[in-house]
Amino acid sequence: MVTNFLKTTDLKMNEFGAILVNNQFETNIKDVYAMGDCVMTKNIIYNKLNYMSLATIAAKNGKFLGNILAGKKDHFPGGIGISIMQVFESEIVRTGYTKEQAILNVFNVKEVVVNGTDHTHYVADTKPVTIKIIYDQKAKIIVGAQIFGYNKASLRINPLIPIIWTKTKIGKIEFLDLPYSPPFAKSVDVLNVALTKINE
């Protein structure tokens, strides 16, 4: 951790060296602020601190801290964490909690895994897509998702992000309207299938 040089100071950090701050990026030392990859961030799903070393989180930190230092009454709400990568032609994306992380926070964790294809079979270059959705059975909310595929299949994570962020109840999203055209998707998308299985 890049904060090793601060271990001899009075800054409060967790066991891994991430600095503890409030939602205005104030540390335990007056007039000392911290933000970005070196701080803990509130995961808004269960309102618990997580370490999220992500460029998107750090960029938002900068905006909010700039507003705060300029005298605006502002605070950073937190995040859910989103990571995406490409390995040769394949794509992997995740958001929210993994199943293992969710189990540490709640006992009612379930998951569904659905395998499908990214578009209709009569259009060339059909590729497989796998979607895993992790949900809290008691609270009836999605707490995480992971997608593996090709041909921009990873972008199917986008409609799930606001669903997780707003804690939308799973009973309301089974028939989520998604764009359809044979080169891009099926009329009943693999994501719709996954959301339906949650409600079975």
From TrEMBL:
Highest taxon in the source lineage: Bacteria
Molecular-function GO terms, alphabetical: oxidoreductase activity
Ranges of residues in domain FAD/NAD(P)-binding: 3-61
Domain (Pyridine nucleotide-disulphide oxidoreductase dimerisation) ranges: 87-185
Keywords in alphabetical order: FAD, Flavoprotein, Oxidoreductase, Redox-active center
Cofactor: FAD
Signal peptide stretch: none
Pfam families linked to this entry: Pyr_redox_2, Pyr_redox_dim
Recorded family membership: Belongs to the class-III pyridine nucleotide-disulfide oxidoreductase family.
Protein name from the UniProt record: NADH oxidase
Annotated source species: Spiroplasma kunkelii CR2-3x
